[in-house]
Amino acid sequence: MNVNKLFRVIKDIALNVKTVRSAYDGDVYTIWNTNEVKYASFVAAITSAGKQDNIRVYNMVLYYGDRLTQNGKNKNSIWDDALNTLQSVINKLNSLDEVEIDDNYTIRLFEQKFSDDLAGGFVEVIVNAEDELGGCEINDIITEDESLVARLKELIAKYEQENAELALLLKEVYYKVTGEILEGYEPEPEPNPIIPDFPDFPDKPINPHNPDFPNPIGGGGIPIRP
Known about the structure:
alpha+beta, Alpha-Beta Plaits, 7-stranded mixed beta sheet, 7 strands, 35% helix
């Protein structure tokens, strides 16, 4: 499952949760510091990605936030919604055949100023998704016989004259197998958007024991078991 499909699946799941009015992917600080956000809001972000055999491994952060009332009396209700929403998204995503989420995670709650005063929660999860290219099988077949690698190059040369789109696809397969970049093919960079820690607001500390981390509950948040 590539990045675009993963984000699309997660946002579709989130939008089917009754507490969510909008779903986004990307930098939560950019998204929640605009005036166009519809709250309550869900955001998915990828912090890093890798590959193990035919599995893509994504390190992700999922966020849920909603506006606080002027007196902040709805904070506990928002926290309840955050816990339920994030857990619902994780459970639904984990039920898909091609996805598995590591069960060692903690949902943390926050209260913080963005373009609006928000409360909510976030959770860091590791998502293991099947690679649609099936790289494991390709490696097993081709790297065991160098003549097959040579044959692949012959096919690329042939289809460069007959079918440029197919030739480009074969170059991608060649790159996945050998690590060699052939002329005319530009591999996509691995997704690695920067998701910074929550910033410190010294004029309004969230947790007096650790104002750099928005965890008003104290300790390490509330551990949630699937």
